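We now fix the convention by which a protein and its fold are recorded. The integers have meaning only within a learned vocabulary of local backbone shapes. A complete example follows; check for yourself that the lines match position by position.
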Amino acid sequence: MFAALASLGMVCVGSVGPSWSSGWTYVLFGSLIVAIIFGTWAGAVAARKGRSMQWWFIIGFFIPVLGIIIIYILRPLPASDQKAKA
């Protein structure tokens, strides 16, 4: 039963969906890689400044260049604020 559903899904998606040799596939995967790199970069800088690495990864992922600029402009949190957040 599962194999029949899987093969039906492949037939439906294969006939309707875009081909994998399309130029847009490379653009989308390239954009995903760039977004992951910018998100990781923003998260690493945020961690050094005592801010939430997870939130800044998300910000850097969805708005890459602006996220990097903002996290570099922000000042590091004082040590007392960092202990209160943990």
Summary: The radius of gyration is 20 Å. Residues 34-86 form one domain. The first helix runs from residue 2 to 16. Residues 59 and 67 are 6 Å apart (CA to CA).
